[in-house]
Amino acid sequence: LLDDAGRLAPTIFAEMSALAARTGAINLGQGFPDDDPPAPVLDAARDALYGGLNQYPPGRGMPVLLEAVAEHQARFYGIGLDPEREVLVTAGATEALAATLLALVDVGDEVVTFEPFYDAYGALVGLAGGRHRTVPLRGPDFRPDPDELRAAFSPRTRVVLVNDPHNPTGTVLDDETRRLVVELAHEFDATIVTDEVYEHLLFDGRVHTPISTLPGAAERTVTISSGGKTFSATGWKIGWLSGPADLVSRILTVKQFLTYVNGSVFQPAIAAGLRLPDDHFAASAADLQRRRDLLSTGLAAAGFDVRDSRGSYFVVADAAPLGHHDAADLCRRLPGLAGVVGVPISAFCRSGLAAEYSSLVRFAFCKRTDVLERAASQLASLS
Ligand code: PMP
Ligand code: GLN
Question: pTM of whole model > 0.90?
Fold first, then answer.
């Protein structure tokens, strides 16, 4: 995240997408779909565009989206929210994360995350002046060790930032870990911030459990999500957060000086998406699961040791059986070797764990079937 001079460096996603553009390789690096959003969502954006909704929306977000978020949380998880006080619309989940950390973390406060972690977490903790403590996800299933989780907390812990389903590993938290996060947050008086942008992208019959539904969690949890992944609209940057009204107001105070507001024509469109019938959500997860299977099978046939992806856009593959022990080096050469771009897991790690995970590569499978088939057949040339 930091260059040799200690400055923030360009993100791995920009670097890898530029590599794909330069070499013409298939981009399984940056996680974005090559499909359009569903027709009702596109129609609602067009209607808003020609319907006079082109000026600043209200600071908390447009009522239509605030209400749709509250209805969505009630429909899928039984969570009751007051849309006027307990929901806030943001410029993607990224701004929700930024505003939340800037609002809650003072200089020297500690923020606990798992590791590997989505790269923005490290950068945003740094921008807030916080200290980043990480808990390794270990083993083929990428699970945290309960003792290591406990050891990451201290009296200076202000926030525990959880990402479930998890980028980059594709793992889903187990109930025991969720319960321990809530217990530790109480014990150390920390706020739980939970990034659930992949909440609808779970596989093999799994159902998402928001951490705020655990006993004693809602009163200290900020839940973050986004329309980007659920509706294949990553460029629209419509996100939101929900939680106790006092926390949401503190975060709004920061948010108003970041973007102020955003996306007036896309807010009603994402609201229309959130109101699609249950079948739509189930069908898109099933569709993505088929793509996961296609890429996972292709990677295994090419000689990678493929980890089980339980959710998200991503699958992790170990290149060690192919004789590649430095995934960062492999990823730089992969366009030449196989015409494919992936991201080394070390890009989501800090020093110690980067070495342990040095042969792991993250591939995105949120791509058209024909693209994944082509990638699989090109990767076969590696073995
Ligand atoms: N959190 C995670 C875990 C992500 O993978 C991403 C991006 N794909 C984001 C947050 C950012 O979401 P958004 O594009 O809505 O800002
Ligand atoms: N979240 C996406 C990924 O992990 C891309 C986000 C980005 O480009 N910043 O690939």
Answer: yes
